[in-house]
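Two proteins follow. First one:
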Amino acid sequence: MTSPRRKRVALIVETSLASGRGILRGTGRYARESDRWSLFHAARGLREATPDWLSSWSGDGVIARVHSPELASLLASLELPVVDVLGVVRDAPFPIVHVDEGAIASEALSHFRERDFTHFAFYGTSDENWSPRRRDSFLAASGGQASVFEAPHEEDQASIEPMSRLRAWLRNLPKPCGILVASDNRGLILLETCRSEGILVPEELAVLGVDNDQTLCEISTPPLSSIRAGHNRVGYEAARLLDQMMNGASRKKIADPILVPPTGTVIRGSSDTLAIGDPVVARGISYMREHLGESLTNERIAQACGVSRTHFQQRFRAAMNKSVREQLIGMRLRRAKLLVESSQLTLRDIAERCGFRHQEYLGEVFRRHFGVSPGRLRRSRQGP
């Protein structure tokens, strides 16, 4: 007996964005599991011209981020099963597998409300039709109470007018406020603008992106929290659907989009806080965050905030329901835990960077708080 011919599947999905790379990983996982596909793909950006070879390609099916009517028309002319994993071209004749914008909005709102935020905002892209869907879902989830700012695509951000409007919008937002950003790359623009305006992140504005592009999130200052939107599963479910279509499933029976929920939020420095209504306390926590490795006293922190030590301690206790020292120890322990889990620094270096007197003291406080030693935690997360 001869083995069945492998299905030839074209992937018209960009590699320039984390969302596209996630879709490709999910598709690749399905292809490996089925072990009967041959995949055809060329590295590209979302808006790049359609590959020349596609118009004359003789394959079995296509998974595509259909970003324009022209691409939709070309794919329709192939008369092959096609699954769209973008869903922005109206009336395109393809079934859609996409992230669930409503569930992303609910995830963002839950993240902010768990941190006691009551003011919300959305920063989006005016010339990308997926961004308004995300905006509308966030507005609906917040009961229409979110402030909105939108500007053209990233390459237009160098112009003075959109940036001056963004700065004014950020200054006028009620604080503290939780901001959902339409995408991680837009989050970097927002964080940079906050720094230039002297706005404290996360104490005054907590910022949350979408897609969890790890590289972008970790080079921002502070590191950007982000929702894992579920693009990996989008790719997997799109491949499963395409497989059914290539094996005879009717396109007409697949009328409703398949929506994939997010898989959680990766919390980083841009939103790792509680809403702080007292601006003096917010400045104090920001100062502590910036000087964790130094010798900090209540007197020094209060002086940086422009108030007396006694006055600062009273306001801090009223706002945070804990002492300044308790807050400082908690911040140092969280920073130490992050470095233990994600870096190759020695425990001595970690103790020094986080403001502990020496490695032994770090180990003692760490074990008491987390129930495990720093070394054992590192081995469990990183291996020997």
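Second one, unrelated to the first:
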Amino acid sequence: MKKTVIIILGFFFLTSILSGCLTTLFPIFHEKNVVFNSTLLGLWRYTEDEQEKFMEFNKIPGDRKKELTPNVNNISDKGYLVSTKDSTGKLISQCFVFLAMIGPHYYLDYYPAEIPGQKKVNVFHKEHFIKVHASYRIDFKNRDHFEMKMFDKSFLDKLIANNKINIRHEVVDGKNIITAPTDDLQKFIIQYSDNPKAFTKEKICKRVLNY
């Protein structure tokens, strides 16, 4: 029981940081869904909260693969290490990202990777938190332009509150923590993939450099 409480509290801590974004305990993809698209490799510019930011997509380096879970490590060659930077080039965050085809659309599954400052955090404190997945739909426009948008957490919250969907979750301090397995997540994604209310406003990404 104590371990479960620690995991849920850690999960809640991370989801509070990612407020507004649908976060899940399990990935949205199975191995068969994952594809690698070299078009993503490179540096991309976008605007968020009226600030210019950058995303850099690289293949996952060999020395970083040990940070992946065992069930994902065997497809690490199909994944990306994505670095988010501010307008000055300062590193904000890094994530392991996998591109997956689910139904008729492509999606990105983001899973946190440690940046240098986080690696110094005491191991005891790290064990009190659990990493979660964040999902985005991605629409490729051409080789130098794609758009991505998050699943809107409030949309799913309303479905749950109105008993319009039955999906496994935990309620912690009034917030829904989605603990459904991958199969159930995919059913939700496919059902609402073309509902504009299920997503936040799209993020327009334009290429700066091609790798």
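SUMMARY FIELD: The longest strand covers residues 91-102. The two ends are 48 Å apart (CA to CA).
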